[in-house]
Amino acid sequence: MVKLASAREIRTYGPRITRNRSEYMNAGLYVFATILLLGGFVAQYSSEPRSGLVLLLLGFFAIIIVNVHDLIAHLAAIDYRLSLMEYDLQLALVEFAVPLVYTIGTILLFLATLFLFIQAEKGYGYFKLEKHALSMFMAGPILWVVGSIQNSCQIYERANAHVQILQEAVLIPFLLASLLFVVGAIINNQEHDAAIHHGLELLGHTCIWLCIFGSSILFVGALANVVKVFKMQQHNEVRLEKLRGGAQERLIQIREGRMPLIVQEYSRKELPDVDVQNPQPTPLPTPYKDVLVSRN
Fold this sequence. Notes:
Helix content: 55-70%
Strand content: under 5%
Distance between the termini: 72 Å
Organism: Perilla frutescens var. hirtella (Perilla citriodora)
Transmembrane segments: 27-46, 52-72, 93-120, 132-149, 169-187, 207-227
Order of helices and strands: HHHHHHHH
Keywords: Membrane, Transmembrane, Transmembrane helix
Region (Disordered): 273-296
Radius of gyration: 26 Å
Protein name: Polypyrimidine tract-binding-like protein
Number of strands: 0
Structural class: mainly alpha
């Protein structure tokens, strides 16, 4: 559940005006999604807990959209050439893997909430769906934790201190919130094993309170993300580091015709031509001490 803002200097997909507008819309959508999650868990203590499940479904769906946008944006920056990830570890392990892991985890939470909503509406099939709902409600936050850890492994070459503070202001709340969701899911499974619950009572009180705290922390992180996106668009105020030698530079070289189109040829090293019949030995460098002696 991360709105990943890359450590790279810019996001290169689309025109600049369209790109900035989509970034702001994406950050605002994430804030709205965290509000929906917070309201959904709080509504579990109201007289209409089913409405809370609807809010949770909408919140998880909005988070899926946010992460899919990040995934498409990072792939568009390299013209969707997945083979270039071989030369850019951050692109593969952070900018591609993190949105993908968060998307899968959020889909699992969306399906778990959907199963709870179906049980509440239909009133049957508890034993068929509740087991899968509990498993997915635990697997989803675990993937969030994995994505948060991966997202903290960003590569900086010449990082501005202001940029790193903004980055950590988003990463730390998301990691803490993911841990709270995992702890809540574990406690909920233990409570369910001690006393079987069905339908809307499948989520225990301790789990709901931990999810409320986690959603509140997510909201704080989403607000920090809005500030970070705004600052990263202001190039005059915040100088972002530029990663060199990565996939984007190789793509630019391909477009300018300075590198072969076949990516497999990149790994071939250019060896000097050697005459096989009359090989010439390579002269060894003269030590600095011998040069001084010869001058004397």
